[in-house]
Amino acid sequence: PFSTGLDLPGRFLFATLTLMTLIAILVFIEEAVYIYRKIPSSKRSIIIWINAAAPVISTTSCIGMWVPRSTMFTDFTAGIFFAIVIHKFLMMMIKECGGQKMLLRRFENSHFTISTGPCCCCCLCLPHVPITRQTLLWLKLGTFQFAVFRPVLIFLSIVLWTNGNYVLYNLSPKGPALWISCLIGALTLFALWAVGIMFRKVRILLKCKNIIPKFALYQFIVILNHLQTTIINIFATQKIIPCAPPLSSTARGSYIAQQLLIMEMFLITVISRVVYRRKYHDLEPPACAAEEPGDNTQTP
């Protein structure tokens, strides 16, 4: 394995990044115990899922760093997990408004602004959509389709990869990698668009529940896990990142992406603990007070 050929600075770097991953896992476990004890059951699992995004990505990156041949599987595992987290984040915003019925009651005569990123931020002429049960269903489907179809496409990619037909860095129009990547990209944009529409509507109402820093952390994970990794991989395939024997350019780009993700996800895990740690009954001024009846009985 590559790790046996590391010099002393390389071993120190690997040990430090591994320690950061272990600390991130311990911080998440401690936070999950706190959430399980302090947060109402209707929100408990959703918040734990969202908090698990950064530690899971850090763990898969650490495994890929130590076992280079597992990179295909670790990247796909992180991708599948985060596809589910995007849907969970949308559901969390609905839950924080008191549930779907309470949200519809609050915004009974209001409208969604669909001219928002990442799909339609420049299309200011788009009409405003009334907030109804049907439009909420469409937003849920916008994130749910990503949680369903991305694992299917990733499974198809693994099947083609084991047969030698799928090469991750081969973006030729004749190969399946380009078309699968474009389809996953389109599904990702559509899911992020649905979350952006909902956030734009509820950000003022949920400001007392730290929704803005929570959304910022979620956006950082999206950018770092997708955009940053894609840019590094493009630089590696174009030989902008030089090879360093025994690593080729693509392998070195993969190592750089994994090591950066470990450090970044460690910081996000620590910050998430601070943002999600505050007790909900301390964040309930009159403008935010209407929670679901079941939540009030379970809040400590």
Automatic annotation (TrEMBL):
Membrane topology of the entry: Multi-pass membrane protein
Signal peptide positions on this chain: none
Keywords: Membrane, Transmembrane, Transmembrane helix
Bilayer-spanning residue ranges: 12-34, 46-67, 73-94, 143-164, 176-195
Main localization of the protein described in the UniProt heading: membrane
Record bears the keyword Transmembrane helix: yes
Cellular-component GO terms for this entry: membrane
Pfam families documented for this protein: Solute_trans_a
InterPro entries: Ostalpha/TMEM184C (IPR005178)
Compartments in which it is found: Membrane
Full protein name: OSTA protein
Source organism per UniProt: Notiomystis cincta
